[in-house]
Q: What sequence folds into this?
């Protein structure tokens, strides 16, 4: 039967230390485990230093911020791109108070949406004009850079974003 001290040590010992970190063979009893964990040796002396094979580094897509620029004389722009699950593409588009903006997004699997935010106020906060939309049209309340934030509703999303300002 275990005594309280042995049970407490077993309960607080990190699982990785119990399974892989001890350089000696795994203890066969609670008493041996207690002795190993309470020894006066520094942890580095008790932890195995066997080198592991290096794991390949996978680079995930980072959320991106880009500016939408209309061609000379144009009132709209279309962007075709894709967003990886868990990331967002943020587009900045400059517009003036009183103009009418239309934003539409289409995706093959109907899994891309956008959020439209107004330019920042005096304290730097942006008001959300439309959350999780696929289409929005409205008169702009102020002059500045509007944010269109694109994300996927499930999985990765390829999309076509169209922005029109008149």
A:
């Amino acid at each position: 039967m275990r005594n309280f001290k042995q049970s407490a040590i077993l309960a607080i010992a990190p699982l990785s230390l119990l399974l892989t970190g001890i350089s000696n063979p795994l203890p066969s009893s609670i008493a041996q485990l207690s002795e190993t964990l309470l020894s006066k040796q520094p942890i580095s002396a008790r932890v195995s230093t066997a080198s592991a094979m290096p794991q390949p580094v996978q680079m995930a897509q980072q959320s991106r911020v880009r500016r939408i620029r209309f061609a000379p004389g144009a009132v709209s722009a279309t962007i075709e791109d894709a967003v990886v699950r868990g990331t967002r593409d943020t587009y900045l588009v400059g517009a003036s108070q009183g103009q009418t903006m239309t934003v539409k997004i289409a995706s093959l699997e109907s899994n891309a949406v956008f959020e439209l935010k107004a330019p920042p106020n005096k304290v730097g906060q942006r008001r959300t004009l439309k959350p999780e939309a696929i289409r929005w049209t409205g008169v702009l309340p102020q002059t500045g850079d509007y944010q269109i934030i694109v994300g996927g509703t499930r999985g990765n999303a390829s999309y076509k974003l169209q922005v029109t300002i008149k």
User: Anything to note?
Assistant: DSSP finds four helices and nine strands in the chain.
